[in-house]
Amino acid sequence: MASQTKSLARLTRQEVKTVGEEIDVSRKSLKAVQDQAESARAQARFSQMALESTFRPVLISIPPNWHGFQPGVKEVFAYEPNAEPVQIDPSRGHAIDWRVKAERIFVSVPVRNVGPGVAFITGTEFTGKLATRTKGSWKGGIVPPKESARVLFVLTSEVEQRLPRRDAPLPTAFAQHERFTVYIYYEDIGGHQWTTEVHAEVRADEGLRWFVREVLVGSRGAPQHEMVGSAEWIWT
After folding, report:
1. DSSP-derived 3-state class of residue 160
2. End-to-end CA distance of the chain, in Å?
């Protein structure tokens, strides 16, 4: 009887050990399957990113003497519907244009598409000490690769309220604020949303000319520290 009990105990222990080993093998198999699934997801994400990079647009500022401007062909646009057209010489096509008329300030900033995909501009805003999140318009809202567009702003009553010295001429008062930022919102053909920030400053030793100090590019809504950018220092 005692011998049978010992044999049964040994058999039970062996069965428990076998079951434990099977469980361990199952756990390892499950871990391997999970690792494979995660690797497949990572590969899928990488493939998706690679695919998206083939049609992502990137809008940035324009350098002087950019090859995209046709020699002798002036850029023509209007800041407002039915307004007198503005003509920009190709030698100044890269520059921030600004002018004053009837106590209003007109500002435009040109950009180019250096990405492989078409940019569809959906909105733009001007922010500075004279105006906050003032919405603008644009010329050339569909921007193919290697092509340019221009975003346009009309600063009116809000400017009057923020001028530090109303006895100063309007151009001088505008220049005294030294800097502003333009936000350009656009989408790619896949519906992904992007933002370009153009930071501009006035160059005092060049009269009242403005230059692009920095350009930042990132996904729409991304915090500034997650955006990609560098100092441009494009004199205008």
Report:
1. helix
2. 104
> Are 77 and 177 contained in the same domain?
yes
Question: How is residue 130 written in tokens?
Answer: 């004279």
- Rounded CA gap, 43 and 27, in Å? 24
**Which residue bears the tokens 């100090």?**
213
| d(C-alpha 69, C-alpha 94), whole Å | 9
Token reading at 221:
């809504």
Q: CA-CA distance, 140 to 158, in Å (whole number)?
A: 27
Same domain, 122 and 104: yes
Contact 104, 155 (CB under 8 A): yes
Q: Domain limits at 204?
A: 54-234
| pLDDT, position 186 | 98
For residue 173, pLDDT beyond 70: no
How many domains does the chain divide into? 2
Neighbour count for residue 105 (Cβ, 10 Å): 20
State the DSSP code for 175.
H
Read off the pTM.
0.74
Pair 183, 164: CB distance under 8 Å = no
Confidence band (pLDDT; 50, 70, 90) for 204? Answer: low
Angle at 106 between CA 166 and CA 125, to 5 degrees: 105
Q: How far is CA 179 from the centre of its chain?
A: 19
Indicate if 201 and 135 belong to the same structural domain. yes
